[in-house]
Structure formats: structure tokens, C-alpha cells
Amino acid sequence: MVFTRMSANGVVVVDDSPGGKETAASVARLGYQATLVTSGEACLDALAAGPLPLAVLVSLELRPMPGDECCRLVKEHQAWRGVGVIVVTSSESPHEVMRCWRAAADDFLLRPLTTASLAPKLDMLTRAAGPAGAGRRPLAGKSLLLAESSRLYRNQIGANLEQAGMRVLYATEGDEALEVALEHAAELDACLLDTVLPGLDGVTLAAKLRAGPLKHKPILLMSGSEAMNPAAQEAAQRLTGSGVLDKRTLPFEAILAKVYSTVQPSLTQLRSAERTPFFSVVDFSVDGREWFSGFAYDISAGGIFIRTLTPMQPTAEVHVKVRTAGETASAHSAGVVAWSNPYWPRSSFAAAVGMGVRLTRMAPVLANQVERLARPRTETSSSPPRPP
User: Does some domain include residue 385?
Assistant: First the structure.
């Protein structure tokens, strides 16, 4: 088969069922350039032919290459991972949801597809690809100095904060960080400094910043070293007003949560809570009339974490319908969006798109499952915490 080169609004529909043609037609009716292929291999060939499409809609029931395997190969390819992948399936079982999560799918849609369910997903991908997408991010307009010598932490922390809309200024050495801070003091909202830096160490750097232009702005310290002497710990506490974040033992999300809550106090610490796997189809709505879809992949004692291309803004009050295992009806609950990761295709280190919802009211069937699955660990438990 010969593939035409796709435009920026191209959508590849990968479906070998009779419904594939109708899905492609629905995509075309929404104004996108639809290309229908009938196998995972053909999808990969289409991406290789380029230019890359906006999205791939792939059927989970494909054969011989299943849809989740096709999704995984797209997301593992360095040049393709920014393409939004939506898995389409006829089943809403937790096992099918788990397969999509493991394949790093950006979203999940149940058949029969409708333009009403598909339109907001493609619209979000379109807006995220343009400059207007930045205005919807929870930390838009905020700036932070990140002083970190480790490329891994610098990339992970920086990319996640940029995904949230924050402008991040980078430094790999203490003296460089001081120069950057002095030059951009007026626009900085906070600093995140590693205690171990070439040149000026993080604690000394924090002292210089606190005595200078950042006297009243938040400064956070983090460390991956085995130990800090008591004098350095006391100085860090005095300079920052909080303890040093331990990169070795804290889940990565705890560092991000601390930054979020420091520069945007309305955002809660829910994102750093210990999580337990929980796979389910989820529908959610702000007004109770227009419903969006996604899938849950873990829960904590206080919230549910939903992967979706259409996350709501932090502080939004949402209605949530969770389809729990063994139940025929959805469990209607309510909550408040605590944090939101908008879709952001420009980095390999971007966080999974979706949102964390602090549940304020739970249906009894969901409350029972949360109690059973997300019960806080006892001190005698030998199981290590699960990273987010």
C-alpha cells in the first residue's frame, strides 16, 4: 500500500473490523484528515512515511499485532512518542484497561464511537500542538530556577514543570545558578536547588539568594547524598522554612508536589500520596451534562488518578462515574481536581496526561474497594512503597 504524506491534522485509524470505515468517516466529519489502515504493521509504516499525524486511533482487538502492542511500539519510538494514541475497545474490563495503561496509551474509548466522545480528545490534541495550549496549564505564568547537576533529575523535574506551564531556568553549577538568579530575580517565583552542586553548594547558594534579591521568595532544597551534617540541616531549615527533600527515598511525585504547593498553594499534596493499582473505565463531568471519558490506573486512600486527554483544571468540582469490577452499574461519586497534567507532546520526560481527583463523596461500592486496596500500610509491612 502507498501512503500519502499526512498533514498536521492527520489521524491514522487502525482497525480491521467492519466499524473501521465508520470510525474513519467520523474523524473526517470532524475536519481531520483520516487515513484508515487495517493492521499494526501498516500503522508503523504510515508513521515511518511521515510527516507524523496528530493522533492514532487503534483497535485493541487487532490481529496479528494487538492494538496495545502497536501503541507500545509507537510510544517507545523516540521520534513518534509525541503522537497521541487513543485505544478503542469493545470491553471495559479492568484487564483491558490495564493493557492500555501498560502500553502508555494517552486515552481509552469504548465502542461504539461517537463524534461527541471523539471530538474533545482530538480537539485537545490540536490545541496542545499550538501556542494556546500553554494558557490552560496549572502553573502557567510561573517561573522557577532549577539548579541540578544530574541530567536525569534535571530533565524529569524540568520537563514536568514545563508541561504544567512553568518557565524553568536551568543551572548545573552553584556559581552559574547564582548568576541566573541575580539576572532574573524579578521574574522568579521560586528556586529548587540541589544541596550538592559544583562550585557553590546548595545551602551556601540558598544563603546568598536569601540575603540578596530573593529574600522573600520560596527556596526549596533537595539532596541525593547519603547524609547532611546537622549544621547544614539546621541552616537549610532556617533558610527555606522546610526540610531538605530526599531524592533517594521520596517518590518523584513528592518533589513535584512540593513545588506545586509552594508556587500555587491552592494545589494540594494529593499527587504525592502512595498509590495502589486500580484499573477501571471512568466518566467525569463538571456540570453533570457533558461527560468525558478516561481510565483509572491507580488510587490512594483519598483520591483517584485518571488518565485522559481531557483533564479538568485544578480546583474544578467534578462528578465521577467509576465502573468497578464485578458491578454492572457505575459507582457515582464526586470530588475536586487536585492536580492536572495537560497533554504535552514535546518531551520524552513529560508526565502521563491526566488528573488526580480528591474524592469528597464516594459511592459505597467504591468506598469499599478503596478501603480494601488503598488502606495505609502498617509499620510492620515488609512491602516497599510503590513508586508513582
Answer: no
| pLDDT above 80 for 385 | no
Residues spanned by the domain of 223: 139-263
- Which residues, 6+ apart, have CB-to-CB distance to 384 below 8 Å? none
Q: What total of structural domains would you count in the chain?
A: 3
Model pTM? 0.72
Answer yes or no: do 210 and 281 share one domain. no
Query: In the structure grid, which three cell numbers stand for residue 205, read together?
Result: 547558594
Last residue of a domain, one of 263, 284, 316: 263
Asked whether residue 123 falls in the same domain as residue 47, the answer is yes
The domain that contains 336 carries what CATH number? 2.40.10.220
Among 243, 256, 222, CA closest to 338: 256
| Residues 218 and 324 reside in one and the same domain | no
DSSP state of 219: E
Would you state the cell numbers that stand for residue 20, as one nine-digit string?
473501521
- Span 48-70, pLDDT tens digits: 988 899 999 999 999 999 999 99
**Hey, what's the torsion of the CAs at 325, 330, 336, 337, to 10 degrees?**
60
Q: What is the pLDDT of residues 247-271, one digit of tens each?
A: 877 667 778 888 888 887 765 666 6
Residue linked to cell 511525585: 253
Same domain, 49 and 105: yes
How far apart, in whole angstroms, are the C-alpha atoms of residue 117 and residue 282?
13
Residue 322 carries which DSSP code? Answer: E
**Alpha-carbon dihedral angle through residues 254, 258, 264, 268, given to the nearest 10 degrees:** 50
Q: How far is CA 26 from the centre of its chain?
A: 28
H-helix or E-strand spanning residue 120: helix 115-128
Kindly tell me the burial class for residue 289, based on how many C-beta atoms sit within 10 Å of its own C-beta (0-12, 13-18, 19 or more).
exposed
